[in-house]
Amino acid sequence: MGVFSKGLSLVKPNLLFFLKVIAKFNSSWYTDSSTKSEDMKARFQYRFYPTTQQQRSLAQLFGCCRVAWNDALALSKSSKYPGYNTLAKILTQSKKTAEREWLNSVSSVPLQQSLKQLETAYKNYFDSLKGKPKGKKFGQPRFKKKTNNQSATFVKSGFHVKGTGVYLAKIGVVNPISPLRTAIRAKLGNCH
Fold first, then answer.
1. Nearest alpha-carbon partner for 181 in 171, 166, 192, 167
2. CA–CA separation, 85 vs 143, rounded Å?
């Protein structure tokens, strides 16, 4: 088919669930073969209605991502920022303790992505202190709250398109309002 997904984010502002797909396309599947084939990135957003069990699993996933972020941020604020690799090791060790054993009930991919996002936030903050990016300065990363928008990010190893839905690790298949494959093709067809 020529389409492969690069990443996927789940976002829950209030009571709505959105599936944001960042896909990379090889243009040869929608252009004639005589033109040069290039990769193209596109971003799509789909609303979906999870089942009751999936809502519970997603709520638990969002909470676990928030805890992973907040624990890593607390550790970073108490001393020098240790870096992603050290934080990932600490996360793995904490999942083995009785206090944080419940982190094993969700996929490890979004938890690791939370740590990657924290690393990016710190990089942006430190670069901002040095004056690298022009324009608005970045502040220090902040703790996440239950009341703010909840999100979780999956990379290729944590999801795949299955039929007209998306299979999420340890959650199951979620079905967006419009089927993914046909919606992606329709949107790309309208781009020309």
1. 166
2. 20
How far is 106 from 143, CA to CA, in rounded Å?
21
Alpha helices per DSSP H over 96-169: 108-130
More confident residue, 72 or 176: 72
Q: What are the φ and ψ backbone dihedral angles of 104, each rounded to 5 degrees?
A: -70, -15
> Taking a C-beta distance cutoff of 8 angstroms, is the pair 113, 66 a contact?
no
Q: What is the pTM of this model?
A: 0.81
- 108-158 pLDDT, tens digit each: 999 999 999 999 999 999 999 888 877 788 999 999 999 888 899 998 889
Q: How far apart are CA 26 and CA 171, in angstroms?
A: 29
The CA distance from 22 to 155, in Å, is 10
| Rounded CA separation 147/191 (Å) | 38
Task: Write the single-letter amino acid at 133.
Answer: P
